[in-house]
Amino acid sequence: MPKQKSTWPTEPLKRERRLRVGSLEVGLALDATSAERVRNSIPYRYVVRPALARLSGAKNGHDGNGNGHKTGVDDPTVYKAGRVISKPVAPLTEAATPEARAIIEKISGYQWYHTIDLGHGVSTPGYVDHRAQLPFYHLPEDMTGMRVLDVATFDGFWAFEFERRGAEVVSIDVASMRDIDIPTNWLDEFDKSGVDHEMGVGFRIAKEILGSKVKREICSVYDASPERLGMFDMVFCSDLLIHLRDPLRAMEAIWTVTKGFAIFADVYHPDLDAFKGNALAQFARAGSGRSDVWWRPNVTCYHVWAQLARFSRMEEKSRFVLQANFQDPIPKVVFHAYR
Q1: Are the beta carbons of 237 and 152 closer than 8 angstroms?
Q2: How many whole angstroms separate alpha carbon 315 and alpha carbon 82?
Q3: pTM across the whole model
Q4: If DSSP codes are grouped into helix, strand and coil, which group holds residue 285?
Q5: Each residue of 73-93: pLDDT tens digit?
Q6: Is 61 part of any domain?
Q7: How far apart (Å, rounded) are the C-alpha atoms in residues 139 and 134?
C-alpha cells in the first residue's frame, strides 16, 4: 500500500530574533537545532547575549545592569544574563523593643522561604521578597467579602497579604517535603536520610505572631475540589506549576474550585518565547540532576494549558524578574484566568 501523506505541518520550528537600533531592524530566523547550537556557543553566551540584554534594557528603561530609571507595572523587567541584583533581606539585628526581641527569638532557627513583615520592625529573613513587587500581580486592593484560596502556601506570605486586604483565606499545602511532586528515586534519598522535613512550620510561627485567622489545610493541589474545599472568588497559584509533574492536571483542579478568577504567576522560558505562536516547554530534568523543577514553559504554553483546563479566557498582566536571593535570574509572568 502506498503511504499516506501526513496531514500535520512538516515545516520545522523556527526561532526568530529581531533587534531594532534606531531606524534599523535586523531579523534572523533559524531552525530549532541551529538556534540551540548558536545559543550555546561561546560568542553568543559571552558577547552577543550580554549586548542584547543591554540594548533591550535601554529600550525598557534599564541600563542593562539591572538598574532601572523608569518604572511601570506593566513594563517587563529586563531578563539579563548573570546574577539577580536583589535588595538584601532584612537581617535579624538586635531589636529596640521587648516585642521585637520576642519575635526575633520565635523566628530564629528556621530557614524561611518568604520574607514576611511581622510588625515591630521585624521581617523574616526569606529567600524571596515579594513586597516591592506586589503591583505586578494586579491584586484587588480591597478583598472584603471575598473567599480566597492560596495554593501551595509555604510560609504564607500571600495568604497573610490577602487577609490583610480583607479576604477570608484558606491555604493549602502538602504535609512534608516527602509529599512534594518529585521523582520516586528522590524518595529513596529521603528514606536513607531518615529526615522528613515538615511543611508549615514557618506558617504556624507567622500566623501566631500576626494573630491571623487564615485556615491551612493539608491538601495537594491535585486533590482540590468543591467537595473538599468549597468554591472561591479568587484562587492564587504562584511558583508552583513548574514544580509539578502534571501542571495541566493542577490547573484543571483549580478550575473546579474557581468561582470568579484564578491568578497564575510562574516562571517562563524567555528563549522558548522566541518560537512565535508555538506552545513549548523544556523538560527541565533532562541532564539536570536533582532539580525540583519539571518544566520550563514559554508563555504560549501557559495559555494553552489554561484553555485545556476550561478557563474561558486568560489575560497576561505582567512580566518581571523575581526579587530573590538566587544565583540566576527568575523571569516570571502573571496571568488572570477567568472561569
Answers
A1: yes
A2: 30
A3: 0.74
A4: coil
A5: 343 333 332 233 333 434 545
A6: no
A7: 8
Distance CA 298, CA 275 (A): 9
Q: Is 296 a domain residue?
A: yes
Domain count, the chain: 1
Q: How far apart are the C-alpha atoms of 158 and 234, rounded to whole Å? A: 12
The DSSP string of 192-220 is HHT---BSSHHHHHHHHHHT---EEEE--
Cβ neighbour number for residue 276 with a 10 Å cutoff? 12
Q: Is 298 exposed, middle or buried (0-12, 13-18, 19+ CB in 10 A)?
A: buried
194 within a domain of the structure (yes/no): yes
50 HSE (CA, 13 A, CB side): 8
Residue 279 CA neighbour count, 13 Å, CB half? 9
C-alpha to C-alpha distance for 203 and 172, rounded to whole angstroms: 11
Question: Which CATH number do you get for residue 165?
Answer: 3.40.50.150
Helix (H, G, I), strand (E, B) or coil at 153: coil
DSSP label at 48?
Answer: I
Structural domain including 178 reads: 98-338
Q: Give the model confidence (pLDDT) of 23-37 as tens digits.
A: 444 445 555 555 555
